[in-house]
Structure formats: C-alpha cells, structure tokens
Amino acid sequence: MATHGKKYKSIREKAPAEALELDKAIDFLKQNHYAKFDETMEIGIRLGIDPTKSENMVRGTVSLPHGTGRKVKVIVFATGAAADAATAAGADVVGFEDLIEKVKGGWCDFDVAVATNEAMKEVRKLGKVLGPRGLMPNPKTGTVTENTAQAVKESKAGKVEFRMDKHGNVNVAFGKLSFDTLKLAENANVIINAVKAEKPAGAKGIFMKNCTVSSTMGVGVKVKVSE
User: Fold this and answer.
1) I need a labelling partner for 5 at 20 to 30 A (CA). Which of 92, 93, 130, 176 fits?
2) Nearest 5 degrees, angle CA 146-CA 148-CA 149?
C-alpha cells in the first residue's frame, strides 16, 4: 500500500469533506498542489449499478472541447487506401501483418488502436494483448471504421474513451492542471453528461453515487452531481 508524504497529508487535511461545485473543486486542486510537473486531472465516478451484469456495462467515447493536453499516440491496422488516409491524417504507426506481429510480441507503446473491418479479422487474435489494456479496437468507440482518417484526427484532438471497471467506477483524464478552471470544468461536464447518457435502461435508484476530481499527485475532492 502506497504511503503519502507530508505535503500530501497536509493538503488532505485541508480538503473539504462536503461535495463542492465542479469549478470550486478544480480551484482547490489548482491552489493546493506541490508536484514539479504539469499533473493530469482525472474525474472518478462511482456508479450505483451492479458491474457484474453484462447489461449494466457503461462504455462510450466523448470528444473533450479543450483536449486532454497530452500527445496521443495512435496506431492503425489497415491496408491500401485506408492505410494511406491514416498516414496522411497523422497516425503514428500504420501497418497490418507486420504491426500485428509487433503487438503480438508485447509492444503496446500507444494510446489508441484503430482498425478497418477487414483488418479486424486478424486483429481480434490480439485479444489477450490488447483486451486487458483496454486497447482493442471497438465499433462502439469508433475505432473499428473505414474512415481511418477521421478516427485518427478525433483521437489526436481529444476524443477519450470511458468504461466502467469491475468495481463500478469510471475514471477518465480530462486535461492538465495548467488548463484554466473554465476549460477543465467544461471538459469534465462533457464527461459527466456522456456517462449519464449511457445509463442502462434497467438501472434503478441513484445512478451516480458520487464523483471526485483529482490530479496525478493530489487528493480527491468530491463534486456535486445531479441525476
């Protein structure tokens, strides 16, 4: 179990116990940080549904209006015109058999994988490598597509994926601590609304049980969310 230093503990003692408005929570983190680098901001949402039931899976993508503030590395499994379009759109690595072999060997130095429908016939065989890392291309997230150029551009511009984990939590990065509060709040609100939109039809009771925002090295601050 990780132990925290004095700076973290002193900030945690100052952190409000009650849930704050989103912009106030972000301001607290911006005013109470000690890391020497530009930390990533993350939002965590605890959902009030049973994560063991497949019909309750919450997953989707959303484009952040102000991006994530980080360079996103995108690879594309494609051939022919789709491969050429992906290269022109700025994909970091484009290939097919050669790229599949590279990933099969354990190479996963990328953030997003895109594939054409034809390529997916072979890419599916990489399930053991890509699946556990959340990197498997998926039609629902727009990463299995013939329009590889659009998928690359959207990923580079700040399109992020969210998915509920086995404990019923959704965690998504929504920018850098150096972003101004308004931009961070707008990014976070887009994520909150996108998660709400994925509420399973059979879900009963409170869907969003609680929500927190934090930075890489910072404490978690509770945020008010309405159903």
Assistant:
1) 176
2) 130
Question: 137-171: per-residue pLDDT in tens?
Answer: 999 889 999 999 999 999 998 898 898 999 999 99
Extract the runs of DSSP E, i.e. beta strands, from 14-157: 40-47, 59-63, 74-77, 93-95, 112-115
- Identify the three-state secondary structure at position 161: strand
Q: Indicate the pTM of the whole model.
A: 0.80
Q: Which residues pair with 93 in a beta bridge?
A: 75
Q: Taking the CA atoms of the chain, what radius of gyration do you get in angstroms?
A: 19
Q: Are 40 and 76 in contact (CB under 8 A)?
A: no
Q: 199: which strand partners? A: none
Q: Cβ atoms within 10 A of the Cβ of 36, count?
A: 7
- Helices 148-157 and 80-88, axial angle in degrees (round to 10): 30
Residues pairing with 7 in the sheet: none
Query: What pLDDT is recorded for position 14?
Result: 85
Strand 59-63 versus strand 159-163 pairing type? antiparallel
Closest to 145 in 3D by CA, of 114, 99, 111: 114
Separation between Cα atoms, residue 78 and residue 119, nearest integer Å: 6
Three-state DSSP at 55 gives helix
Burial of 45 (0-12, 13-18, 19+ CB in 10 A): buried
Spatial neighbors of 101 by CB under 8 A, at least 6 apart, are: none
Alpha-carbon span 58 to 112, nearest angstrom: 19
Tokens 């309750």 — which residue? 56
